[in-house]
Every structure is written in C-alpha cells, then in structure tokens.
Amino acid sequence: MPRVKVPTEILKLTGSKHLKYEASKKRAKEPKPEPVAPKMPVKLSDDGKKYWRWFVPKMVKLGIISQDNRETLKRYCALMAMWDELYEDVQKNGVSQMSPNTGTSSMRAEYRSMMQIGEECRRLETEFGLTPSSRTKIEAITAPEKATDDPKEKYFA
User: Fold this and answer.
1) Closest C-alpha to 69, from 25, 117, 43, 31
2) Of 109, 36, 21, 27, which Cα lies nearest the Cα of 69?
3) 112 contact partners, CB below 8 Å, separation of at least 6
4) Residue 113: exposure state from Cβ atoms within 10 A (0-12, 13-18, ≥19)
5) Per-residue pLDDT in tens (0 to 9) along the chain, 157 residues
6) DSSP label at 141?
7) Quick one: which of 7, 1, 149 has its CA closest to 72?
8) CA neighbours within 13 Å on the CB side: how many for 157?
9) What is the 8-class DSSP label of residue 136?
10) How far is residue 32's CA from residue 25's CA, in Å, rounded to a whole number?
C-alpha cells in the first residue's frame, strides 16, 4: 500500500525534514487553501454541533483546516455524537448479552459498533493532530506580524 502524501502545511507544523522537497515541482503545484472555518452543516445533530463548536476553532487556530475539510469535519463530529450515544448504551446495558436459546454469552452489536466508530474517530483525530502522539509532532504557529506602511513605526513603536 503506498504511503499517504502529507500536505505541506502539516509538514511545516511538524517541523518535518521532508520540507526540502517543498520547493520541488511535486510540492509547487500542491493546493494551498486559506485556513478558514467551514460553515457548520445544517443537518448535523445537536450533539454533532457541540463537537463542531469544540473542534473547528482549535483547527482554525492551528491553520490546518479550510472550507475543503467540511465533509471530513462533518463526518468526525457525527461519528463522535454516535459514539457518545453508543457509549451511554454500553454503560447502561453492558458489553455482552446472554443468548436465550443457547445460554452463551456474546458481544452486543452496540459495543461492536462503538469500537468501529472509535477506530474511525481515532484515524480522523490522527489526521488532524488530536492524539497525544500526533500532537507532539505539531509546533505552535505564531500569528503573522501586523504590516504597517509607516517606516517610522518599526523604530518608534
């Protein structure tokens, strides 16, 4: 399976040694969308909207999301809302269930679904730098300095 190409902005945030290739023709044509918060989807559930309000400002602050990430962000927020519901169900009803016919124990479908959704969320969190190991690779971005037209400003500010 081929390796996934990492966008230049992520490479900059992580301080990657692969930035030397940024000037190459391969990186020169890479799209560079403006880091702007995408509009919250209308059809997102109330719990999904809570995750959106928590997640999107953090990613905009890091400068790693744009309007193009809207559907991925929507999927993450919807999955997290579903995971919360399944988690509550598993806490209430347990992980396993007893078969009335055979008397054997088996995992509940809700638990299996919760685990699958959790794996997909973890994968998306890694993509966005939200896991502890992926977060250690991201360096803080300082805000760009305010440009002024007054040449005296740099001496007397």
Assistant:
1) 31
2) 36
3) none
4) middle
5) 566 667 666 777 777 766 665 455 455 666 677 778 899 999 999 999 999 999 898 888 877 788 888 999 999 999 999 999 999 999 999 999 888 888 888 899 999 999 999 999 999 988 887 777 777 665 544 444 455 566 666 565 5
6) P
7) 7
8) 9
9) T
10) 14
* Tokens representing residue 69 in the block: 């990430």
Can you tell me the distance from the alpha carbon of 130 to that of 56, in angstroms, rounded to the nearest whole number? 12
Query: How many residues in the chain?
Result: 157
Burial class (CB in 10 A: 0-12, 13-18, 19+), 10: middle
Q: How many helices (H) and strands (E) does the chain have?
A: 7, 2
- The Cα–Cα gap between 131 and 67 comes to 23
Structural domain boundaries in the chain: 1-32, 35-138
Residue closest to 32 by CA, chosen among 15, 49, 11, 56: 11
